[in-house]
Amino acid sequence: MSVSKWVVDATHSSVDFTIRHMMIAKVKGTFHNFSAEIEANPEDLTSASIAFTVELSSIDTRNADRDNHLRTGDFFNTEEHPNLTFKATKIVRTGDGEYDVTGDLSLHGVTRPETFEVTYEGSGKDPWGNEKAGFSAKGAIKRSEYGLTYNAALETGGVLIGDEVKISIELEAGKQA
Description:
Elements: E1 4-8, E2 14-21, E3 25-31, E4 34-41, E5 44-55, E6 59-60, H1 64-70, E7 83-95, E8 98-107, E9 110-125, E10 131-142, E11 161-175
Antiparallel strand pairs: 1-4, 1-11, 2-3, 2-11, 3-6, 4-5, 5-7, 7-8, 8-9, 9-10, 10-11
Protein name: Polyisoprenoid-binding protein YceI
InterPro entries: Lipid/polyisoprenoid-bd_YceI, TTHA0802/YceI-like_sf
Pfam families: YceI (PF04264)
């Protein structure tokens, strides 16, 4: 395959996260609105151009009160910082269809380098003849490194909200004509 532009198929893609709650459980959530600018040969991402944007107000943890709190100044402050962005700066092949994708992640007014493990899941034509490619990505960030420090101490020790946020992305993209 040659280098081409790819458009995210949001109906067949997801951006999910997991974070510890009360030191004993995990809360999962998703972001419904996101986009990407991808120029790549899916079979060799080493020279790809990848930029990803997540609309933070589209957060969904299956609890409206919690979601509304996450949009406030205690957390994302979506009025001042509406998006999380990621721009790849270095892509290294680590195995067959596997890559470490490092880039600048911007969240809450802070930009830091982060690395995600990305797997090329394959490609093919859909029933209408459109070329599609699939990718999975996983990684973790520390929310405190982005100024997201809201928390509460627990009587039993520890804190209400974990610092590490695990991120999982499933992406299906269509080759732009």
